[in-house]
Structure prediction request, 1064 residues.
Amino acid sequence: MLKGYTVPKSPFGQAALTPPPPWHYSGDVVGVEFSADPAAVAACLPSGLVPDPKTNGHAIMLFIDWQFTAQDDEYLDPARYQYREAFILVDAVYRDTPVMWCPYIYVDNDAALARGWTQGFQKKLGSVYQTRSHAAPSAAAAPVAPGGRFGASLSTHGQRLADACVTLRKPVENGLSLLTRPTVLLRYFPRLVAGLQDKPAVNELAMSVMDNLAVADAWIGEGELHLPEAHGEELYALAPKRVESGFRYSLSYSVTDLKILEDYTA
Amino acid sequence: MLKGYTVPKSPFGQAALTPPPPWHYSGDVVGVEFSADPAAVAACLPSGLVPDPKTNGHAIMLFIDWQFTAQDDEYLDPARYQYREAFILVDAVYRDTPVMWCPYIYVDNDAALARGWTQGFQKKLGSVYQTRSHAAPSAAAAPVAPGGRFGASLSTHGQRLADACVTLRKPVENGLSLLTRPTVLLRYFPRLVAGLQDKPAVNELAMSVMDNLAVADAWIGEGELHLPEAHGEELYALAPKRVESGFRYSLSYSVTDLKILEDYTA
Amino acid sequence: MLKGYTVPKSPFGQAALTPPPPWHYSGDVVGVEFSADPAAVAACLPSGLVPDPKTNGHAIMLFIDWQFTAQDDEYLDPARYQYREAFILVDAVYRDTPVMWCPYIYVDNDAALARGWTQGFQKKLGSVYQTRSHAAPSAAAAPVAPGGRFGASLSTHGQRLADACVTLRKPVENGLSLLTRPTVLLRYFPRLVAGLQDKPAVNELAMSVMDNLAVADAWIGEGELHLPEAHGEELYALAPKRVESGFRYSLSYSVTDLKILEDYTA
Amino acid sequence: MLKGYTVPKSPFGQAALTPPPPWHYSGDVVGVEFSADPAAVAACLPSGLVPDPKTNGHAIMLFIDWQFTAQDDEYLDPARYQYREAFILVDAVYRDTPVMWCPYIYVDNDAALARGWTQGFQKKLGSVYQTRSHAAPSAAAAPVAPGGRFGASLSTHGQRLADACVTLRKPVENGLSLLTRPTVLLRYFPRLVAGLQDKPAVNELAMSVMDNLAVADAWIGEGELHLPEAHGEELYALAPKRVESGFRYSLSYSVTDLKILEDYTA
Prediction:
């Protein structure tokens, strides 16, 4: 009887891409809030979601340096489990509930890719970087303080997909206020049998369930974001028309569950 | 209506990890045929397969430099679509049919990872290298000739998982004779809903369907293979007890279909 | 007494980035011949070289998949020694001798970087890819034949620096005719002592010495080349005004020596 | 007149691997203090250094997540300038002065490699990871606190070279007390001209000059360190005989100068 939460299934379950939940995450976020072309946002929504009539076009782009652990001290094996992520969330509505939809997301780690697909985060590989803040004072330290600046970028297969810069102005009293809408996701796994390749084996609209969500050291200020055109990608269709703000905070949560909203599997 | 064969689904279907089939592959293979511990081979078989009573323990380890294309000249974008792969196949029996089972496979590319999962190749990311043969004569050229030597290696997350070396002795008249058994695979996609995490959404035993299979320039000789122990991996349980041969050939085939053998989805 | 041709010097000389010469190379070249802005070419020449009055602006961009070996079967350790390279050569004149000058070159391997600096190739790290030709027939095989197409690209730090495509039309009878001018290089190693940072410890104009130069399977046809603007790079200043041709060949040579043309060390 | 502190020299000096000093660094250190085989330490010393009769064999291994900037906001381009480093320092004596010698050092970035060579850090490329500490509370956060644990690893070309783990016990009042000896380095740049390949163009024993050295949040506790054998490396000759402690701190300093101790250039 093979073991493991994901592939590859193995005799001892040690080879699986990711250990089973609970999954714990703690990381640092650099992000930009902006308005994209409302038609482009509407075009990237899946079945089950409609544009938010009040905020259609509103979006955030996040760059996160993540540390992960499950039950076996995975945080002590950073070569395998630490990773970096970049993604975009756009406003939408699910049955009268304001939500955010994640059309594009990139990580630099296969364990994170596998967990993501399981959750409905449609992850691809990318190279993600953000300016860090270090405790020892230096021109290189990037303290979290008024005027503090943080760069971030995303590339994939050698093409730059996003360049961002955030300038901090002031702390945000209630950091959780930056995360007001739940995230809607798509669990999708195709069939390969001839004649069934457009009939996915899994096609579920899902809502992220985040336990113990915590935000620390949240700051807000100005932001810049460029999403240059790139072959084989569609992120750039969501390029900013107007940037609202830039922000930075530390974020943690755990994953033990997922809420399935709709099952579109044929 | 979002488009794309795999995630991420997008307005134009250009962002998906992989274009839809037909998928065409051409590449160079360096491989070693060997005998592993029969108990270790038996232990890595999935439900539906049993050890081959005549050859249990027999295995091959393959390192392949692949070029891929679908219908849109993907072979002209090697930064995105060219990749390297290493995997092990072990003998087994499916309902009286001698087959090979692929317990572990590694690639260095996310499009290949996504296609692999769809087929039932339980792919993880790895770094794969093989000695190449170049046409311009040199001590570095590695000609395909008697005594020609080819090294190969696999690493993941900075740990070496396999080291191989092959010394060619003579051409193989019928290269297809090296590929006699069909490959059995596992399509597996878990659920994340609490209480259902051990009830996968997809759990199918599948058989690879290879169209237009061709082998060119096949040579055989001696082989060496080391599968050192590595944390977070189980490949090393299949380390050689005895090496039979080493080989090298060029290989091509196309994928348009998959045969589902058993559906174990609950 | 520490040993090793380059750093790091070590008790047994096994840790050095590269073994000592002779160095043997065999590889596959995809390239484009073109005309850049003559002023941009003139601006990138080092002291000791002047623009070629007859051909100023003429340049070639080469993408090479290299295999390397020295005296210890390094070609059997492809994870450490196989590499990919992209570089540009522009026409110039050294004391009445028509030469080519290499202003920018990128490799994906530290041993190649170290050898390069020693020769005067001013190497940085980059990700380089080219379409390969495989023997097993397939839509993915890219045969070397009339109409055969080969893509190539260069990226660094997640920015695309070059995209090329070559369409083969006919074999070149004498492949060596594609390599008529010697390559001039700059060996340069700065000082860090305060006050001496603009007085390099090594500043030598050098000419590449290639032993046993061989070209095989040379073909010529049409080419395309794009050198997009990128932050922290100046390659794009040499973007094509007109493309002359595209070509592909296999190349080998050995390095045992270097010719110092001028010593500008203060 | 070409510009740039290092290669490649270019018309605007923007293409050079690294901007000129001052160089500013801020980062997080995870390290282990230990005793290696005294004969192995003695064997790795360069001319000009002798074993420290009182502490011969004493060594530290450091893993550092670095942020770098020069004068042009390089810290806002983390894809190009942020990097990770691992190195070993062993006790030695230079003319009656107790010093530390850096025989082996690895970074994951070419700008850092180039600066290192200039200083006398004999850098190669490697993959380096350390557990980070994030502000948002979580099982994944790794707070700096009694019992806090931090893993670290180094790999190169797919081989694991070092695995470390540190368990914090108590703060260190004066963090600078952890950095008592100056670091001695080797600036070494070979010649390639035939007959002169063992007569380096630069061969200088140097001492690191660190301006504005600061240590913050220093903690000490227990350490573990494994330096497994690896082909093409000699670090493992310095494997611990006994581990003294583990530690973690934040570190910053600037570089504007270097002290040349001895010039062995022929």
